[in-house]
Amino acid sequence: MEYRRLGNSGVKVSEISLGSWLTYGGSVAEEQATACINRAYEIGINFFDTANVYMRGAAEEIVGRALKNFERDSFFLATKVYFPMGEGPNDSGLSRKHITEQCHASLKRLGVDYVDLYQCHRYDESTPLEETLRTLNDLVRQGKVLYVGVSEWTADQISDALRIAKEMNLDRIVSNQPQYNMIQRKIEGGVIPLCEREGIGQVVFSPLAQGVLTGKYRPGDAPAEGTRAADPESNVFMQQLMNEDVLSAVDALRSVASDAGLSMPQLALAWVLRQENVSSAIIGASRPEQVDDNAAASGVKLPEAVLSEIDRILDGVIQRG
Fold first, then answer.
1. 3-state secondary structure (DSSP) of residue 306
2. How many CA atoms does the CB half-sphere of 34 hold within 13 Å?
3. pLDDT in tens, 142-181
4. Ordered DSSP codes for 28-86
5. How far apart are the C-alpha atoms of 192 and 321, rounded to whole Å?
6. Residue 164's closest CA among 201, 129, 125, 118?
7. Hey, where are the domains in the chain?
8. What is the Cα–Cα distance from 106 to 104, expressed in whole angstroms?
9. What superfamily in CATH does domain 3-209+275-286+294-299 come from?
10. Which letter does DSSP use for residue 17 in this model?
11. Count of alpha carbons within 13 Å of 114, Cβ hemisphere only?
12. Which residues are catalytic?
């Protein structure tokens, strides 16, 4: 496993990280989740990502119990805040009240004294950005949070946060967690150029496009029962990918992966990691073997000829925003 700095911060995280969205506390039993976390740790993955909203706290609890097996200073733990955690008027968003209460709740569920990275899961239009940033800064000063990040923020939103942090001498954002893969490339236009200039690293989610880039969904075939694409509650992020044009283009990548001596997931992950502004790519896994296969993408350098062939094959289905 190779490691990269998280943006311009001093901390180093594994190129492949393990997430818990739509899996732990839901479709994957705790025993399986623990086996995946144990295997990830064994092979050098030190970055574990979760969120309070994942299964309404259950994912944090499972991740926390699994990580109890390891020394706290040997792993990098990230969680998030923003989405509703109750029915009350203050049970969502990025207000001082919600952030503070949810940080304490996450620490309790995870069974730790601090989280390494606390991320604003989305941008909150209804809360002054100054209030959000001051609250995050307070949590850093209190030692409950070491680094601050965001997820799916636009370039303008990130830029505003950096400006306010500088003006008010507040702790600075070090990371952004966007959706990014060979097909979905919208962050290349504005987010990545800004973050490269400002020293903010991308912590990429959905690098395998919800499993589409693994090649398990074939053109002309209905999704197999039990897969994410066949579940109406889980496939909301996949709908724009589950069409014949995309699936046919992905199917044509099989020969590219084979010629490169890689599995389809490894090809997709290596493509994401070619981007120097990416600090880590978050994978989801229900079996330790998946962790092994995905982690093997760390350190793989794709030749320019392979990158050009990928672009040629996917031309016409790439989503640039």
1. helix
2. 12
3. 999 999 999 999 999 999 999 999 999 999 999 999 999 9
4. B-HHHHHHHHHHHHHTT--EEE--TTGGGGHHHHHHHHHHTTS-GGGSEEEEEE-S-SS
5. 13
6. 129
7. 3-209+275-286+294-299
8. 5
9. NADP-dependent oxidoreductase domain (3.20.20.100)
10. E
11. 17
12. 54
Give me the residue label for tokens 């792993």.
75
State pTM to two decimals. Answer: 0.94
Q: Does residue 152 come out as left (phi exceeding 0), alpha (psi in the -120 to 50 range) or beta? A: left
Q: Where are the alpha helices (DSSP H) in the chain?
A: 30-42, 58-67, 96-110, 129-141, 155-168, 191-198, 244-251, 254-259, 264-273, 288-295, 304-314
What tokens does 124 get? 């909150």
Alpha-carbon gap, residue 292 to 307, rounded angstroms: 24
Both tokens of 194, joined, read 């800004």
Give the whole-angstrom CA distance, residue 224 versus residue 265: 19
Q: What is the DSSP letter of 246?
A: H
Give SS3 for 263.
coil
Tokens 């239009």 correspond to: 125
pLDDT tens digits, one per residue of 93-124 = 999 999 999 999 999 999 999 999 999 999 99
Q: Are 48 and 78 contacting, i.e. CB atoms less than 8 angstroms apart?
A: yes
